[in-house]
């Protein structure tokens, strides 16, 4: 049996556990520092075995996934270095920053175990094992950060195991990763939170703000509901990159102040045009960086059975739908459905079919 130990079975650790559990020859052990969490992992059936003992989870493991918040990763690498890990064991993590954990692991005495940094570029604003899903990584990019000293055999071993996630593996250097992910993930989280808190302040004096908050506000602020402790650790860890990005962001907002002061309509139009052109060229029509390669959105009326209707229509036309999701753009009604497909042909056929039966489809 190949033993996989997962430390921190939350959104990401739990989703990995669900990808591996029940696969031939694999056994999944979950670790938490809390007894109550261990009981929950077992109750929910995401792992084969669970323990509060670091030693019991780690020893004899062929793979160790560190899925705890970024601020605890280095301590875990340190604690593992005090154990007798199985020779050839691959230790990896899923942290949203890479430079510090990779540097720590490089200096740690892991015996004959090997560390390869990792970061699945998929997630959500939800947290905990309750939010875990075996589909979370499907079609997402999964960054690994091996360096010149990492044996190809070990990279292959981890890559082979990760095929169960159905993610696309990419190799990126840790520092480059932190710069890029700072811009496309960490900065957007800061902007979302700052914007929500700005409106929260206005709303204290006038509750119409939250009543009228519609699609635009909700679209840009979904990630403003992310887990505070996880994001505290990410931002503090990547602070140098983020300070630079925030200064550049200030330049961006200053440019808008100037354009408004000068009533520079052409400048505003240009900014929107350039932004739209860049977004429309994002690879494979993906919305965000995550989830699925081929996606479209449809507006749906507010009546029961609509999801079933869409799914049935596509099924009847032999169109393979890989995911369907309600985007909660309004409080109590399904407003928009996000449909995901594995193949471009399926997306094209779906767009055609849904258009014919009267749905408004957009990308
Ligand atoms: N949320 C995302 O979208 C996302 C995406 C990719 C990677 N990540 C990274 O994955 C890791 C886990 O994030 P998550 O979203 O699964 O969070 P989560 O809160 O869902 O899960 C975190 C897990 O770690 C445990 N934990 C929390 N604090 C701990 C501590 N101090 N010591 C030991 N265990 C602790 C929790 O009990 C839980 O099991 C983080 O490093 C995060 O940066 C998150
Ligand atoms: O989709 C989301 O909710 C996410 O926050 C996922 C997201 C992102 O910013 O894109 C968040 C953190 C990660 O480390 C990777 C992905």
Automatic annotation (TrEMBL):
<keyword id="KW-0057">Aromatic amino acid biosynthesis</keyword>
<keyword id="KW-0028">Amino-acid biosynthesis</keyword>
<dbReference type="InterPro" id="IPR050812">
    <property type="entry name" value="Preph/Arog_dehydrog"/>
</dbReference>
<dbReference type="GO" id="GO:0008977">
    <property type="term" value="F:prephenate dehydrogenase (NAD+) activity"/>
</dbReference>
<dbReference type="InterPro" id="IPR045865">
    <property type="entry name" value="ACT-like_dom_sf"/>
</dbReference>
<comment type="pathway">
    <text>Amino-acid biosynthesis; L-tyrosine biosynthesis; (4-hydroxyphenyl)pyruvate from prephenate (NAD(+) route): step 1/1.</text>
</comment>
<feature type="domain" description="Prephenate/arogenate dehydrogenase">
    <location>
        <begin position="2"/>
        <end position="290"/>
    </location>
</feature>
<dbReference type="InterPro" id="IPR046826">
    <property type="entry name" value="PDH_N"/>
</dbReference>
<dbReference type="Pfam" id="PF02153">
    <property type="entry name" value="PDH_N"/>
</dbReference>
<keyword id="KW-0520">NAD</keyword>
<dbReference type="InterPro" id="IPR002912">
    <property type="entry name" value="ACT_dom"/>
</dbReference>
<dbReference type="InterPro" id="IPR003099">
    <property type="entry name" value="Prephen_DH"/>
</dbReference>
<keyword id="KW-0560">Oxidoreductase</keyword>
<keyword id="KW-0827">Tyrosine biosynthesis</keyword>
<dbReference type="InterPro" id="IPR046825">
    <property type="entry name" value="PDH_C"/>
</dbReference>
<dbReference type="Pfam" id="PF01842">
    <property type="entry name" value="ACT"/>
</dbReference>
<dbReference type="InterPro" id="IPR036291">
    <property type="entry name" value="NAD(P)-bd_dom_sf"/>
</dbReference>
<dbReference type="Pfam" id="PF20463">
    <property type="entry name" value="PDH_C"/>
</dbReference>
<protein>
    <recommendedName>
        <fullName>Prephenate dehydrogenase</fullName>
        <ecNumber>1.3.1.12</ecNumber>
    </recommendedName>
</protein>
<comment type="similarity">
    <text>Belongs to the prephenate/arogenate dehydrogenase family.</text>
</comment>
<feature type="domain" description="ACT">
    <location>
        <begin position="295"/>
        <end position="363"/>
    </location>
</feature>
<dbReference type="InterPro" id="IPR008927">
    <property type="entry name" value="6-PGluconate_DH-like_C_sf"/>
</dbReference>
């Amino acid at each position: 049996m190949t033993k996989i130990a997962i430390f921190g079975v939350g959104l990401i650790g739990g989703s990995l556990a669900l990808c591996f559990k029940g696969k031939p020859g694999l056994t999944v052990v979950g670790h938490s520092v809390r007894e109550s969490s261990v009981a929950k992992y077992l109750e929910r059936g995401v792992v084969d075995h669970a323990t509060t003992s670091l030693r019991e989870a780690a020893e004899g493991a062929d793979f160790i996934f560190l899925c705890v918040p970024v601020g605890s990763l280095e301590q875990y690498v340190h604690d593992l270095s005090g154990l007798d890990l199985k020779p050839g064991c691959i230790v990896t993590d899923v942290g949203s920053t890479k430079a510090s954990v990779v540097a720590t692991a490089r200096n740690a005495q892991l015996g004959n175990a090997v560390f390869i940094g990792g970061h699945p570029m998929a997630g959500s604003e939800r947290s905990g094992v309750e939010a875990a899903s075996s589909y979370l990584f499907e079609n997402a990019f999964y960054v690994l950060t091996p360096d010149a000293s990492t044996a190809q055999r070990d990279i292959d071993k981890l890559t082979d195991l990760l095929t169960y996630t159905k993610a696309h593996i990419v190799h990126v250097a840790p520092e480059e990763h932190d710069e890029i992910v700072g811009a496309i993930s960490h900065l957007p989280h800061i902007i979302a939170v700052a914007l929500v808190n700005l409106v929260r302040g206005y709303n204290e004096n006038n509750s119409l703000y939250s009543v009228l908050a519609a699609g635009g506000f909700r679209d840009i602020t979904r990630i403003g509901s992310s887990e505070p402790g996880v994001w505290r650790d990410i931002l503090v860890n990547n602070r140098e990159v983020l300070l630079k990005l925030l200064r550049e962001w200030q330049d961006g907002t200053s440019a808008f102040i100037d354009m408004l002061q000068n009533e520079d309509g052409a400048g505003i139009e240009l900014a929107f045009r350039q932004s739209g052109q860049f977004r429309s060229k994002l690879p494979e029509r993906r919305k965000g960086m995550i989830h699925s390669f081929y996606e479209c959105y449809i507006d749906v009326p507010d009546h029961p059975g609509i999801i079933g209707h869409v799914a049935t229509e596509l099924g009847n036309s032999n169109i393979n739908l890989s995911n369907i999701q309600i985007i909660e753009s309004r409080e109590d009604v399904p407003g928009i459905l996000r449909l995901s497909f594995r193949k471009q042909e399926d997306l094209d056929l779906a767009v055609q079919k849904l258009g014919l039966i009267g749905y408004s489809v957009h990308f």
